Structure formats: structure tokens, C-alpha cells
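Whiteboard transcription, Tuesday session. T.W. wrote the C-alpha cells on the left side:
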């Protein structure tokens, strides 16, 4: 029995020996308070608290396991210790504190410290560089810094913040920042403008930011096929030609070239526009050759259609073509008169009513406010039809480049204004009803005639039958 009691006490003795070897019973877990982020070369404080542990206490700040950083002794029952550290590159890691009191020991939880390098030297770089590119190409902007870590980025377009919010006014531009980059897959002219970024580190206290300078993105437009035309003027007895080459879209500067019969005869650099002019020799009535122009940029070269340099003097007999225009109620509203000319490259037109001249816009205001000229005077509109507008109209033409050239004149054409110029819908309805009634009457007459014939046939048959019976 005695041996059994000794065996029961053996585990207790072993446990007591283990506690004696380990330095007594463990202390309550201490509490370590410290920052999770700190700027490089700044000073931070870690506080280790161990409530309920009697002095004297020894506090140890450990890093990444058992690497001893600092030690502090508490001899006055303060139950806490302060550790002041200057942050270096090697300060990043996991910290905990160990408290020893009366042979007993306690370990705190871990505080993870990240070393933050302050941001500086923020700038925007582009691909392509410089940021000048044609529409439809890819643009990549990057917010770079010379120093900094744990950064966040904010982008600005024309000083408006770029966000992913669907309600942002910049959403139609499809500007989606990812990290420190801003990518536009297919740029348009709407993406041209000024871009900038802000890089920074957000902390509970003392957040730091660095702004870049604005970078200007320029979007170039591809050229359209140039259009070619020419004019002629007269000075004294000499004639001068001028060829115009023009593109409707594109980005200057561009170079225009003029070719006469496939031989280059001139060039001009347009720095602020998309048009160029070239003087050429020209004689009315003579074929001076075929001209074409080309426009060239740093990405394209396009050529116009050929144009024959021939000036045909005004000639032949003009003819006036009249077209009446009507309102919804089928009443005459206006009239359009066109002067049809068989010969003439650069005609100048003039109109008259009952022998009175209707002035051309280049000669002054018309005495008839209801008259309007269009197509260089070739077309005359009677915008308001009145009885005063009725009469005989003529058109005449001459060469616009030579005020001494002879006029050719059309035959007079009568333009007569009536109250109702066309059949109204009501009249058409009446005519249709009359036609329908005549059709019905004709049908009834045919039916009656067929019935009468049938009666006559029956009566004739009866008479023949009676005659045979009498015999």
C-alpha cells in the first residue's frame, strides 16, 4: 500500500522539478505596443507593458525570434518599459517583448514593422517618348519616383482626378489607371491634354506625397486625300492661274507638292493650316495640261485626283428651267429657276424680270426681298410667290474673270402665279367618287340588260309553243 502511494506522488514530484528547472510558473502575457510602419531615419517608440507582474522586472525587446534589440529594468513597480529606436533599413521585421520577474517569464504578441522610404522625385514618363502619336495607337504613361516605397498613385487629366467611377466625367475617355501606369489602348483626339500624377504613402499620421510636373500629350490626326481646284484672274491683258490643294483633316505641319503632267513644279510647307496655293500659267481656251497635288506628313503621303487645266469661255445659248414648289395643302409656295449653260468654266450670272435687272449679291442688295440667289447666281429662288413676281424672267452669263467679256442671254420664260396651281386632295376624292358611281351605274345597266334579254327569250319560246299547239 505504501509503495502505491509513492507511485502516485511521483508525477507531482517530476512536475515540480520541471517547474524548478524552467524558472518557476509563467507570467501573464505582456502587451507590446508599437507602429506597423515607420519612415527611414525616423525615431519610434515601442512600449512593453506587463500588468500584474511584481518588481523587479526585466524587459527585453526581441526581433525576428530571439535577436535582442534592447533591455530595460523596472525596479519601481511601473509595470512597463519604453524602447526608443532609430529606424534603419535593417529595422524591418517582427518584434515582441519578453518579461522576466522572480524567475518567471512571459512573452508578448508580435508587432510587424515595415520600413517606409519617403517618396521624392515623382515624374511622368511616356511610351512613346515624346508623347506625340497618331490616333488609334497605344499610349502608356508611368508615374515614376526616384525614391519611395509602399506607394499609392493618383492620376490627373487636365487637372481632373482620374477615377474608375462610372459617374466620372472622364469615364468616356476609358482612362483606367493600374498601379503606377495609365494605359490608353487606342487614343483619339479627345485624349490630348495635360497629364500628371501624385505618388504618396498613406499613414495614420504624417502621410507624405510628391507631385509630378504636367506632361502634354499630343494626338496627331491622319491626313485625308487632298482636293485640288483652280481659279483664273485677269490683270490687264494677262491671265493668271492659281491651283489650290487642300486636305480636310490632318495635323500640320505638312508638305504639299504640285505636279504638272507628272512633273513636280512646286512645293510648299504648311505649318499652321492644311492648304497651299500654287501659281500656274493659263490661257483661256487652251489645254495647259493635267495637274495633281500630293500632301505628305511624317506618316503618310497621299495624292489627289488629276485635274485638267482648261478654261472654256462662256458661250452658247443659256436656258431657264423652272420648277414650282408646293406646300402640303398643294398650294404654290415658291419657285426655283436655274440657268442652264452649255459652255463656260467660270461663269458669272445675272437675272432680270420684265427687263429690270435683279442685282447679284456681289453688286448690291436686290430690289426684290423675295428673290434669293444660290450656286454662284446660277439658281434664282422666288421665296414668296406674289402677283408682283409674275412675269418674264431671263438669265445671262459672262466670264467671271473678265469684266469686258460679252454676255450671252436666254430667251424669256413666263413665271405665272396662280391661286391654286395643282389639283387638291378634295378634288381628287370627288373625281374618284364620280368614277366609282359611273362604274356602279354601268354595272347595274349591264345586269338589267341581261335580265331583259332573258325575259325576251322566255316570251319568244312560249309564243312558239302556243303556235305549234294551235296547229
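and on the right, the sequence the group agreed on:
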Amino acid at each position: 500500500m505504501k509503495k502505491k502511494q509513492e507511485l502516485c506522488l511521483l508525477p507531482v514530484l517530476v512536475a515540480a522539478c520541471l517547474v524548478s528547472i524552467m524558472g518557476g510558473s509563467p507570467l501573464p502575457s505582456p502587451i507590446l505596443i508599437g507602429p506597423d510602419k515607420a519612415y527611414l531615419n525616423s525615431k519610434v517608440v515601442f512600449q512593453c507593458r506587463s500588468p500584474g507582474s511584481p518588481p523587479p522586472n526585466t524587459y527585453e525587446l526581441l526581433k525576428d525570434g530571439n535577436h535582442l534589440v534592447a533591455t530595460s529594468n523596472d525596479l519601481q513597480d511601473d509595470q512597463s518599459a519604453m524602447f526608443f529606436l532609430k529606424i534603419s533599413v535593417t529595422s524591418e521585421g517582427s518584434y515582441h517583448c519578453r518579461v522576466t520577474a522572480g524567475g518567471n517569464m512571459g512573452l508578448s504578441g508580435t508587432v510587424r514593422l515595415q520600413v517606409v522610404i519617403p517618396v521624392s522625385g515623382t515624374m511622368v514618363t511616356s511610351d512613346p517618348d515624346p508623347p506625340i502619336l497618331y490616333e488609334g495607337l497605344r499610349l502608356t504613361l508611368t508615374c515614376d519616383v526616384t525614391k519611395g516605397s509602399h506607394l499609392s498613385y493618383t492620376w490627373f487629366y487636365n487637372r481632373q482626378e482620374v477615377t474608375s467611377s462610372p459617374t466620372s466625367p472622364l469615364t468616356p475617355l476609358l482612362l483606367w489607371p493600374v498601379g503606377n501606369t495609365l494605359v490608353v489602348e487606342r487614343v483619339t483626339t479627345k485624349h490630348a491634354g495635360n497629364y500628371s500624377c501624385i505618388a504618396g504613402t498613406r499613414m495614420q499620421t504624417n502621410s507624405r506625397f510628391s507631385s509630378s510636373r504636367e506632361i502634354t500629350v499630343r494626338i496627331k490626326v491622319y491626313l485625308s486625300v487632298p482636293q485640288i481646284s483652280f481659279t483664273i484672274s485677269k490683270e490687264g491683258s494677262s491671265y493668271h492661274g492659281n491651283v489650290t490643294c487642300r486636305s480636310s483633316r490632318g495635323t500640320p505641319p505638312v508638305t504639299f507638292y504640285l505636279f504638272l503632267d507628272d512633273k513636280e513644279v512646286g512645293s510648299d510647307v504648311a505649318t499652321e493650316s492644311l492648304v497651299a496655293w500654287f501659281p500656274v500659267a493659263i490661257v483661256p481656251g487652251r489645254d495647259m495640261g493635267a495637274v495633281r497635288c500630293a500632301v505628305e506628313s511624317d506618316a503618310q503621303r497621299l495624292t489627289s485626283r488629276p485635274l485638267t487645266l482648261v478654261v472654256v469661255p462662256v458661250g452658247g445659248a443659256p436656258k431657264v428651267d423652272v420648277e414650282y414648289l408646293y406646300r402640303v395643302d398643294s398650294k404654290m409656295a415658291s419657285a426655283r429657276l436655274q440657268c442652264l449653260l452649255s459652255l463656260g468654266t467660270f461663269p458669272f450670272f445675272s437675272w432680270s424680270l420684265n427687263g429690270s435687272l435683279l442685282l447679284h449679291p456681289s453688286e448690291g442688295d436686290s430690289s426684290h426681298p423675295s428673290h434669293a440667289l444660290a450656286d454662284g447666281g446660277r439658281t434664282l429662288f422666288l421665296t414668296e410667290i406674289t402677283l408682283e413676281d409674275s412675269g418674264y424672267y431671263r438669265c445671262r452669263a459672262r466670264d467671271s474673270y473678265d469684266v469686258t467679256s460679252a454676255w450671252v442671254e436666254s430667251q424669256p420664260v413666263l413665271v405665272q402665279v396662280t391661286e391654286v396651281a395643282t389639283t387638291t386632295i378634295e378634288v381628287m376624292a370627288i373625281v374618284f367618287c364620280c368614277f366609282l358611281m359611273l362604274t356602279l351605274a354601268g354595272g347595274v345597266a349591264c345586269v338589267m340588260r341581261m335580265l331583259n334579254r332573258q325575259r325576251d327569250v322566255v316570251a319568244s319560246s312560249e309564243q312558239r309553243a302556243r303556235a305549234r299547239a294551235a296547229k
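Someone added at the bottom: Residues 1-24 have pLDDT under 50 and may be disordered.
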